[in-house]
Design brief:
The chain has helices at residues 17-25, 41-46, 58-70, 97-116; strands at residues 4-9, 28-34, 49-53, 75-79, 91-92. By secondary structure, it is α/β, with parallel strands linked by helices. Strands 2-1-3-4-5 form a 5-stranded parallel beta sheet, with helices on both faces. The protein starts with a strand and ends with a helix.
C-alpha cells in the first residue's frame, strides 16, 4: 500500500495532523482538504481515490459525484466522526485503523473493478 494517494475534499480542519500522520504510517498520503472547485480532475484520475466530506453543500456533492463517476474516479463520502443517531455505518475519516482500512479497502476495490473493466 506504500504510495497510495487520496485526495480529501472538504472544509479546512477536516484532516488534522494526527489523522494525516496515522494514515501516512500505513503508506497512505492524504492530500487536502481542498475546496470542491479546486479539485483537478486530472490529478483525481491519477490518485487512489477521492474522499468527499458529507458536510459539503448538496449541490457541490452532487456535481462532484457526477464528475468523478463520469471519469471513473473512485470516491467515497466521509464524515469526521460517527453521528449518535446513525443507523448506517458511514466511512469515518479519523485516526482509527479499522476506519482507515475500511476506506482504503473500498477505494482499492473500486480501482480494481475499474482496471478489470479496462477503464482506469
Amino acid at each position: 500500500m506504500i504510495g497510495f494517494d487520496v485526495i480529501v475534499v472538504g472544509p479546512d480542519g477536516l484532516v488534522d495532523d494526527a489523522i494525516r500522520e496515522a494514515w501516512m504510517r500505513s503508506g497512505v498520503r492524504l492530500h487536502g482538504p481542498i475546496a470542491p472547485a479546486a479539485l483537478d480532475m486530472d490529478l483525481a484520475r491519477r490518485s487512489g481515490g477521492i474522499l468527499l466530506d458529507l458536510s459539503l453543500p448538496a449541490d457541490d456533492l452532487l456535481q462532484l459525484s457526477e464528475d468523478l463517476d463520469e471519469r471513473d474516479v473512485p470516491f467515497l463520502y466521509v464524515m469526521p466522526n460517527m453521528p449518535e443517531s446513525a443507523t448506517a455505518q458511514p466511512y469515518i475519516l479519523s485516526t482509527d485503523m479499522a476506519a482507515r482500512d475500511a476506506i482504503v479497502e473500498a477505494l482499492t476495490r473500486d480501482c480494481q473493478a475499474q482496471e478489470d473493466a479496462g477503464v482506469h
